[in-house]
Amino acid sequence: MNIQISLQIAKTHLLTKKKQTLIAMLGVTFGIAMFIVMISFIKGVNKFLEDSALDATPHVRIYKEITSNHPSLIEEANPKAFNVIHHQLPKNELANIKNGLQIVANIEKDPAVLGVSPQIGSQVFFNKGPIPVAGQIAGVDILKEDKLYSIKRRVKSGSMEALLSNPNGILMGTILARNLNVKVGDKLTITTPTGNLKLVKVVGIYGFGIQTVDGVRCYANMSMVQEILQKDKSYVTDIHIKMKDSQAAIDYAKVLKNQYRYQTQDWAEANSAFMTGDKIRNAMVIIVSITLLVVAGFGIYNIMNMNVINKMKDIAILKATGFAGKDIVAVFLIQSIIIGVLGACLGLLIGFSLSYLLSITPFDAGDFLAVKTFPVIFNIKYYIMGLAFGVITTILAGYMPARKASKIDPVAILRG
Amino acid sequence: MKVLSASHINKYFYEPEKFQVLKNISFEVRKGEFLSLVGKSGCGKSTLLYILSTMDTDYEGILEMNGEKLTGKTQDQLAAFRNEHLGFVFQFHFLLPEFTVLQNVMLPALKLGKYSAKEVEERAYQKLKLVDMDGHALKQSSKLSGGQQQRVAIARALINDPTIIMGDEPTGNLDKKNSEIVFNIFKQIAHENHQTIITVTHDPDFAKGCDRIIEMSDGQIIKS
Ligand SMILES: Nc1ncnc2c1ncn2[C@@H]1O[C@H](COP(=O)(O)OP(=O)(O)OP(=O)(O)O)[C@@H](O)[C@H]1O
Ligand SMILES: [Mg+2]
């Protein structure tokens, strides 16, 4: 087989039918461009959501599970009997982790751990004026918390350190502050679930860029929160841990659970909603890409099929003058490949341009996420994938007409 | 020296009903012979010629050319054989319309790969000169007249110096003058280059000038 001649014939065929060639090419171009834009954008969204979600969640959280579903005394005493209990109430349990600070000190010693922050969390109402706004307060050692979540970097006004010198200070999320219409230096009252009141001062306003944090949470000193909840100095409800390697956290959570007998939750579990979203979006990319490529493939198949039918006479002549079946396959397959490669390359270029335009397009996600433009990932991997997909589709789509061409019986055509 | 031998060739068509087109055809052709195949329309001349051309492999009997048995070879082997040893001229001057005259003539030689592209081009010019078409070498082949195209087709048939050149009514679409030109070219090739020519023709003048006439009737050779 002499590829050189097949290539020359293929080139001549393509160049004499420029319009057809272009249309077939644009089908591939469109498919690949859309593939690139979609995958770059959706992967960008996934990564952005993951990053911002992971930023604000600990790799591992240790907490105590409060449940009213515990066996009653009578069940324990008389397990075989038929016991009827009306209106079982939850035990008066403390939500704290016993020896919490001791556990923190132990975990901190682990070299795989980046930081540990003990916390006291509670629901509270913020009162400024007559309307109470619901939210959460987290009593923390702000320096430890900073190590986990870079609070300092996220402070928009006021300062994080002010919390250290101000026992009744709080750091407030941006959206909550806006809803309450408070600024740094303003005072407001917080009310605990048990009805205790406390006047506090806003010393800083921070923003994670995530509504579920910025709209509800305030940071305060541990001792202040212990005080308003009327608990002692060792009262801790949550322990947040960041690891050096986030993947290792999933196993580490299990180890901690067995070791300390408290509930643990790893970041993947905590963000399972995001993770499912990821999967759905990834599946969408695959489905839409396949659809586009199949459409482009059919386009090529149609055009090449027509091409073969139009060129029956030429095929018969080539065969009569000694071109073998595989030469004919090569002539038509090369045409598809040229269409595929050029179309795919143009598609990559257009896909890149569109992705770039998207990445600089302003995008207002409201308070839900702090994002200024559409998140787009530029990864050479997607471009290689796009090229490979384009070429593979065109080869598959071009092969059938090419084979058909090679099977043409020259006698039937030449005798007229 | 014989260059072609057909023995006991039978061929059937099955559409619309089973029908024997060729009945026990046997004959031999010698090197350098200028032979014409004549007979009434529908007697099976074209059918026989396409079997001889190796393009039609659906027959009974044995076909040999150049001392090589061709019956039973694969399509690709036969294509290679055609490329090297056979040349064709058809009734309708089949050229590749997108290519120039020169490219049309060169293609079978490029496929053969015996000569470099440069040599092939030189040879193609020689063959075009032989048919007096060298002045049109760089024209697009679709822009030639019928007679000119037929001469280019002859140059193409000659490019690999084939042992046998076959034609199915090569002058069927040409006027008297062009027919004579084609006839003279064939005669020259046969007698000076000792290449064998087998043509189907309806033109009695053309047939008369040949070395030998095989006459067919109803699928059989009646005079040879
Ligand atoms: N593909 C086919 N299927 C069925 N019958 C066919 C086919 N091709 C040809 N025939 C029949 O075979 C017979 C011989 O046909 P062929 O073309 O060989 O005749 P011919 O001698 O070349 O005639 P002409 O001089 O008109 O070209 C005819 O009766 C024709 O109808
Ligand atoms: Mg005929």
TrEMBL record, chain A:
It is a multi-pass membrane protein. GO terms for biological process: lipoprotein localization to outer membrane. This is ABC transporter permease. Belongs to the ABC-4 integral membrane protein family. LolC/E subfamily. It comes from the Bacteria. The lineage of its organism: Bacteria, Pseudomonadati, Bacteroidota, Cytophagia, Cytophagales. InterPro entries: ABC3_permease_C, Lipoprotein-release_system, MacB_PCD. It is found in: Cell membrane. It comes from Emticicia agri.
From TrEMBL, chain B:
This is ABC transporter ATP-binding protein. SUPFAM superfamilies: P-loop containing nucleoside triphosphate hydrolases. Residues 4-224 form the ABC transporter domain. The keyword Protein biosynthesis does not apply. Keywords: ATP-binding, Nucleotide-binding, Translocase, Transport. InterPro entries: AAA+_ATPase, ABC_transporter-like_ATP-bd, ABC_transporter-like_CS, MacB-like_ATP-bd, P-loop_NTPase. One of its GO terms (molecular function) is ATP binding. Belongs to the ABC transporter superfamily. Macrolide exporter (TC 3.A.1.122) family. It holds the Pfam family ABC_tran. GO terms for cellular component: membrane protein complex.
